[in-house]
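Researcher: Sequence recovery benchmark, item below. Answer with residues only.
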C-alpha cells in the first residue's frame, strides 16, 4: 500500500472525499471533494493566504520589486504556462509603473536613436503631471504584460472635457511584432470614446516610423509638423488627431 493510498483512505474516512464510477468508463473511479472537503480546503486556503500576507508585510516597500522579480524567475524555472503561451494582457497601472515607463523609454530611445537625457527629463515631466493631475475615470495608463513581465505601455490623458491625449506609447524590443502597439492604441481609442471625448490627439516624431504606421491604421490623421532640435538631434515633430 502506497503513502498516497493511505492518505486518500484517511480523507475518505473523514468524509472529505468521495469516489464515483465514471459514467463514460465504468472501469474508472473519479475522486472528488465532498461539501465537507470543500469547506476544509477553503479554510486551509484562507490560512495560507493570511500567512502569505504576513510574510509580504514584512518586506519593505522599496524591496517589493525584488520579491516580484524573484517570484517571476521561479515561475520561469518551474515552467510558467503564461510565459510558454506568450499570452499578452493589458492591465491598469500600479504604483511604480509610471517610473518604469520613464526609465524604459529613455533607455530604449537612447539605444535606438541616440537621444540624450533631455528626452528622459521630458518623459519624467509627463509622468509626474499624469500622477499629480490624475482624474479617475478620465485618465488612464495601461501596461502590457507578457509572461509576467511588462513589455509596453500607453497613456490616455485628459486635455479638457472633450479632448484627450494619447501619450508615451512604447513596446519593448523583445515583444515587437506581436501586435501589442496596435492593441494599446486601440484600447486608448475605445476608452476615449467610452469617456465621451470627441477628439484624440498625439505628438510624435517622423523618425518613429512603426508608431506612425500604427496611428495611421488606427484612424489618426497628420495635421501639422515642424522641425526642431531636441534630445541632441534634428527632428521633425508631428501632431496627429482623430475625431471620435
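Model:
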Amino acid at each position: 500500500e502506497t503513502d498516497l493510498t493511505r492518505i486518500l483512505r484517511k480523507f475518505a474516512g473523514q468524509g472529505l472525499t468521495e469516489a464515483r464510477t465514471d459514467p463514460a468508463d465504468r472501469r474508472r473511479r473519479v475522486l472528488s471533494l465532498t461539501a465537507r472537503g470543500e469547506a476544509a480546503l477553503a479554510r486551509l486556503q484562507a490560512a495560507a493566504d493570511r500567512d502569505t500576507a504576513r510574510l509580504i508585510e514584512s518586506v519593505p516597500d522599496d524591496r517589493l520589486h525584488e520579491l516580484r522579480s524573484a517570484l517571476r524567475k521561479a515561475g520561469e524555472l518551474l515552467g510558467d504556462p503564461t510565459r510558454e503561451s506568450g499570452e499578452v494582457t493589458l492591465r491598469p497601472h500600479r504604483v511604480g509603473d509610471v517610473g518604469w515607463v520613464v526609465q524604459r523609454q529613455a533607455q530604449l530611445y537612447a539605444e535606438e536613436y541616440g537621444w540624450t537625457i533631455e528626452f528622459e527629463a521630458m518623459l519624467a515631466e509627463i509622468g509626474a503631471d499624469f500622477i499629480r493631475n490624475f482624474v479617475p475615470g478620465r485618465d488612464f495608463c495601461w501596461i502590457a504584460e507578457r509572461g509576467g513581465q511588462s513589455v509596453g505601455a500607453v497613456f490616455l490623458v485628459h486635455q479638457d472635457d472633450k479632448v484627450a491625449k494619447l501619450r508615451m506609447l512604447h513596446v519593448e524590443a523583445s515583444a515587437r511584432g506581436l501586435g501589442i502597439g496596435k492593441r494599446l492604441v486601440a484600447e486608448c481609442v475605445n476608452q476615449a470614446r467610452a469617456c465621451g471625448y470627441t477628439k484624440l490627439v498625439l505628438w510624435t516624431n517622423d523618425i518613429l516610423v512603426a508608431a506612425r504606421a500604427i496611428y495611421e491604421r488606427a484612424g489618426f490623421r497628420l495635421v501639422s509638423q515642424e522641425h526642431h532640435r531636441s534630445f541632441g538631434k534634428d527632428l521633425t515633430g508631428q501632431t496627429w488627431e482623430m475625431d471620435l
